[in-house]
Amino acid sequence: MRNGERSRVPSETHYSNTVTDEIFRKLRTLISLKERRIMFELPRCRLCGQSLETPAVAESEVTCKVCGTKNRVILSKNVRVVSGVLREPELELRERIEEFARLRNYTFSEVKEHVIQSLLEKRDKYGDFYCPCKTKEVVENICPCEETRVGDVEVNGCCGCCLFWKR
Ligand SMILES: [Zn+2]
User: Fold this and answer.
1) How far away, in angstroms, is 33 Cα from ligand 1 center?
2) Which end of the chain has a smaller Cβ tally under 10 Å, C or N?
3) Measured in angstroms, how far is the CA atom of residue 133 from the centroid of ligand 1?
4) What pLDDT is attached to residue 112?
5) What digits encode the pLDDT tens for the residues 113-157?
6) Which residues contact 53 (CB under 8 A, 6 or more apart)?
7) From ligand 1's centre to the CA of 81, what distance in Å?
């Protein structure tokens, strides 16, 4: 009797455990795949959305090869989070436009300082470097604006506010 119970109970338990284990194993696989995807998916530039090659360290600063924006990438719970660099706004802007000009081999004209001042005013007023020539404060208009990023300077010789010039 006792032997019979013992043999019955473990076999039932064994059966239900196998099913439960299988479900949990599948769930774990799904979760770990999702985690792995997040872990290995490259973070994107906070301005233009370009994938950023980042070193696997807790915190790094990565310059976007498309728009010249510096991104701060923080590893938080195995997920890489992108944020702005901790810079004084004028320095951040100057670094960005210089890097963008360098990446595209563009030059500046004598209106450069004037445009920089207008961009800084926009930053003060609206929180980011929105193009002074544009009326909408949307991400596409953050300097270097979307048209400039996709090659307007190549076509027109300069960007809309005459900051970047084709050589
Ligand atoms: Zn970018």
Assistant:
1) 28
2) N
3) 20
4) 97
5) 999 999 999 999 999 999 999 999 999 999 999 999 999 999 999
6) 42, 62
7) 15
Instruction: Report d(CA 10, CA 64) in Å as an integer.
Output: 60
pTM score > 0.85 for this model?
Answer: no
* Residue 27, helix vs strand vs coil: helix
Please state at what angle helix 89-104 crosses helix 112-126, rounded to 10 degrees: 130
Rg (the chain; Cα; Å): 27
Distance 125 CA to ligand 1 centre (A): 23
Compute, in angstroms, the gap from residue 4 CA to the centroid of ligand 1.
Answer: 70
In the reported structure, the alpha carbon of residue 65 is separated from the centroid of ligand 1 by a whole-number distance in angstroms of 7
Q: Which CATH class is domain 89-166?
A: alpha beta
What are the tens digits of pLDDT across the range 67-111?
A: 999 999 998 887 888 988 888 999 999 999 999 999 999 999 999
- Compute the distance from residue 146 Cα to the ligand 1 centre, in Å: 10
Domain boundaries, the chain: 1-41, 42-86, 89-166
